[in-house]
C-alpha cells in the first residue's frame, strides 16, 4: 500500500474553494458532517447572508431525527450559535412531533464558541464539530469530528456569553425576567460543571 503525505488545509484560504463548493460536496455525501451513524439525506441548503457560511437541513433516514447544521468556512463565531438556535426553534415549532438536532460546524471551533455551545446544551441539544480538509496528492479529503469545550478562561467573557444565549432563547420563547436570569445561571453552572 502506497503512503501519500497529507497536509491540513483551509478550504477557502488555502484551496480557493467556497461555500457553494462545500454545499455540493454535502449534497453528494451528507455523511461527511458526521452528525449521525445512520444514513442522512440533505433536505435543503440555504446560503447565508455571509459568503463563507450556509445552513444545511438533513434528516436521519432510520430514526427520523431532523438535523440543522450551521456551517462556516474558517473560524466559527457566535453568530452561528445564535442562528442555529433560531433555526432549531423554528423547526421545532413547524414539526413538534419530531426530534431536532442543531449543530455548529466550522473548520476551527474557537474556545469561545465551544464554551457557548456547552452552555446552550443546558437547554438545547446543540453540538460543535470541526470540519478538517486534508490535501492528499491532487485530491482533497474532508472529515468532521466533534469538539470538546476547553476549560473556562475568562469569567467575565463567559457571563457575557451566557447573557447572549439567554437573550436569544428568551426571544425565541419569552417567559419573563425571572426565567431569563435563572436560565443564564443554569448555563454558567453547566459550564463550571462540565469544563475540564
Architecture blueprint of SSEs:
Elements: E1 6-9, H1 19-28, E2 40-47, E3 53-60, E4 66-75, H2 78-94, E5 100-108, H3 111-120, E6 127-136, E7 139-146, H4 155-172, H5 177-194
Parallel strand pairs: 4-5, 5-6
Antiparallel strand pairs: 1-6, 2-3, 3-4, 6-7
Helix pairs in contact: 2-4, 3-4, 3-5, 4-5
Structure summarized in a few sentences:
The chain is 37% helix and 29% strand. It is an alpha/beta fold. The radius of gyration is 17 Å and the shape is globular.
Account of the 3D structure:
- This protein is an alpha/beta fold.
- The chain is built from five helices and seven strands, in the order βαβββαβαββαα.
- The protein has helices spanning 19-28, 78-94, 111-120, 155-172, 177-194; strands at residues 6-9, 40-47, 53-60, 66-75, 100-108, 127-136, 139-146.
- Strands 1, 2, 3, 4, 5, 6 and 7 form a seven-stranded mixed sheet that branches.
- Strand 3 (53-60) and strand 4 form a beta hairpin.
- Helix 3 (111-120) crosses helix 4.
- The longest helix is centred in the last third of the chain and has 18 residues, at 155-172.
- It is globular, with a radius of gyration of 17 Å.
